[in-house]
Amino acid sequence: MPSDRAIISKFTRIKTLPNIAIHLIKLISDGNTTIRDLESVIRLDATLVMRLIRLVNSPYYALRAKVDSIAGAVTYIGMDGLRNLIVVEALKDIFGTESYGGVFSRTQLWLHSAVVAISCRMISERIFMVEGENAFLAGILHDIGMVVESQVVLELFLQTCESCKPDVGTFTAYEDSIIGTNHCDVGCMLARDWRLPFEVQDGIRHHHKAMADAQPSGLMGIIQMSEYLVTRLSPDYAAIPNMRVTLSQSLLAHIRDNIRDYKIIIRDLPEEIIKARHIYQYSETNEDEA
Amino acid sequence: MIMDELDNILDEFVNTDEVITQCFLFLQHRLTGHFFQIVSERQRVISTEATPDLSVKERLQAAGLVEGRKGFVYVVHKAGFVARAVSIDRLNAVLVLFSPIPAPTNVTVAYDDADFVLALIECFFTQRDLENKKEELEAQKKQFKREQHILQQRYYKIQDEANRLQRDYTQNLNDEIDRRTREIRKANDRLQRGIDERKRMVAMANKLALKANAANKSKSEFLSKMSHEFRTPLNSIIGFSDMMTETMLDDEQFEYIDFIRTSSRSLLDLVNDILDLSKIESGRQRLENSEFDLIETLGDVENITGFQLIEKGIKLSKSIDSRLGCPVIGECFRLRQVLVNLIGNAIKFMEKGTITLAVALEEESDRQIKVRFSVEDEGIGIPENKVDTIFQPFMQVDSSSTRKYGGSGLGLAISNELVKLMGGERICLKTGEGGSTFFFSLVFPKGTGSVRRAEVRCDGEVVENAIPCKVLLVEDVFQNRKLVTAGLTRRGYPIIIAENGRQAVDIVARERVDVVLMDIQMPVLDGLEATREIRLTNQDVPIIAMTAGAMEGDKKKCFEIGMDGYISKPINIKALDQKIQAVVRQKKGVGAESKAHGQGLCPGANPERPEECPAHPVDPDMLASLADLDIEQALARLDNNEELYRDTLFEFFIAGDGMVSELRDAFEKKEMEVVGRMAHSLKGVAGSISANLLSHAALELETAVRQKEMDRVAPLIDTLERALNQTLVSVRAAIVDSDKKELGDPGSDDTGGSPPVRPVFNGGPDVISSMFCELGRRLKKCDPVGSMEMIALIKKFVDGSALYEEMERLDGLINEFDFDGVLKEMESLMEAFRLSPLSV
To answer: Comparing C-alpha atoms, which of B292, B439, B278 is closest to residue B360?
Structure first.
């Protein structure tokens, strides 16, 4: 049975973030980096420059003035925003569009990740008044482990999806027994390799754990709650059909206590998803690039 | 998904029991005196005080009765109350109302109080919805505030970032400004230091100069005064010493007196030199310019230095540009002083050898000439480090020189100052182990010709009462031009040159000419036509025809058209001189034409009556008897001027190569007139070097052409070619022979028997100079083929020398048609190889 490290090694030989993305993430994580530093790196990738400017000017950011420079874009969306755009762009390639009957679809997983990411940002900012870029990043990456598994050990992964019975055990328990690791651990390790913030790694690692003391404001809590909300919003937004999302008790209590807030989030979520479609949709990308 | 559905998504989080309680309390508060209870879905019961209690069965019955129905439904009579129930759908609960009996039984319709209760329930939910809405708005508001806060944070971040960018930019800008300011300041400092330093140095230099000038002036004044004071007693000493030698003295006394005389004369020389120098330095020396004859002055120099030269056994070689005939304005005394000084200096430092005095015309304009004087010695040379000091007063190469060679050490300083005073730049010096050359250039305004030349000729012959004449020589053939110019210049005639009749007409119209020597056959405008044109406006100027006239009618034509004399080629210089004098005298009515006998080509021909010369009989026997190069005869005709003959011979050698081929070309093109003219020219040229065989062959060809005997022309050209080749061989032999002699070849230096060709060449630089001049002429005509031929010829002469490579380079330049470049190169080569510039 392959270890999570072995799976990651094998995966990174096939697909990983482009060098320029890794370089930029590293620069962004360094507190001394200036916009000028970033600009000099981004300028090397003409496609990235184009995409960046287009995304910054998309309805999602709802900027009043048109931004037409890298420095301007970075200034408006911030370095973390820039990092997320870079990661999202890279992930589109990594996720792919393969579908395996009704068992597992990468397109669906991508949609799930994008919607969870949007929700994470909303919760972080609207409920906890915390800049939502890290929450967004954790959201978009929380199930990246599944992509890795489906790339490296597809048969085992599909077997897991088919075997999983929510009433009997959690999905991660099935993964552990069939694959030998689970997508939470794999995703966390990848995030570590990509030098993403520690809280993002941690959020990814624990997003399926039902912990009594789970902090609602932590990224783990936010991911869990977001998964819960989006699956309640529509079964189409589930990562895998029939996957049950369980919430830690503390999180349930939190939602109950702030039910008005979450109702508002549930109510506003569809609109936000539509607004962010430029960011996650494939078709849009193709159109843009064409 | 519609909004209500979205709202219900999280309904599982709503606590229904709590809402039921709220509803109960709401009703209780408003239904005072009423008894009722609310039963939840999970059979939780909340009742008003003293309200009868229903059994579980009755409660379930009630729930069953109200399901799907609006309004109250009777349930049961109990403890004096009628129990009626109504469904509260939104709470999944049932409200049971107990009304006191008597109450209508089996009545399903609502009582008034029942309706009131229903209204209250409705009211509760309305109120609750409103409260929910209010809370939701509150929540929404809070979320907006939080988002606003984040946006604000982001804004602050952006602002910080923008500030940081601006700060960075400003900082960079400031740094750059600082850096450049520092650089500018440094540069300014450097500049200022430079300016200060310069100012300081200028001030110091001015101060020193003033000091030096003052010192020098007072020194000069002092010396000037003192020298006068010295001279008077010195003259007395010399005078009385001289007188004393006339008295009776014994040998010892005579020796002492002689010593006193010699010493005091030396002292007087020194004092005179000092006086000269101090006069010049103090600015009191003035030049007294007057018209003088340069050639004569040079003769004076030779005479003055002659004794010293003979005494030391040193030879003085003069190279004087033939164009320097006309009188000039300047101070001849000072020029002579400079030249005597330089030559005297050379004599002083030489044990043996030759001193060369070269005088060359550098530039000439209508009003003035620039002349370059140089004195070249074969002395001990001057060390490099002394070159700058020898022109300073009292400086000789070393102090021991003064003792060894004598002299005050003032000669060069005075000469240099005099040259400057006369408008020259300074005396220059080229020196090496083989000797030194002092040279300088002076510009002289041209004189009017009024000066009366002392008739001392170079050959020592004195012509009494010779009339000074400015001669216009009209001649197209270069060699002839050169020959006549050189010959007449030596005899003191100023010469102006015209290359064809047109130029001659222009010159006569423009300036005063005393006599015209007119060639007959010339391009552009021939001699006869030119004379006719001149005579239209000028009847006075004597015109002498100069022609190798083959035909009887030539002389007649000349006189008819207005010429005054006739002399046949080849020219005898002496005869020409006499002819000029005769014609001029005749024209001016000075006296009878002297009877001069020309040394014409034809034995027995009378130069005065050249028409009587037999028209060159074409006799094969006579041809065979003629020497192909009669040097003796030629020299006799040229006043025995070997140098001139050498040049002429050499010019012939240069030009001779291509003569026949040009002639043949013209013949093939049927240009008989050109053939005739060329034969005529060749005849003249051949005559000038006494190449008699060739001259006759040319004459024969010319005659045949003139008499239109066409069938004879081709064979005559062949004959001419053979004669030419033979002559060229002789000329070459002369060159080779002279070269051998120069190299000390014992074989050629035989004293017994006369050699077939007398070597007259010095070889070396003069030969090459001539060739260079010819090359220059061809270059000026932009004639690449001719120039390349000339270079090839020069290369033959200089093979194996450093000049050979230079000639190769010139060849390359000509290939690129860079004529100006070649000319410049050629001039610098002539300078570098000390080739004297000759007239072209």
So the answer is: B439
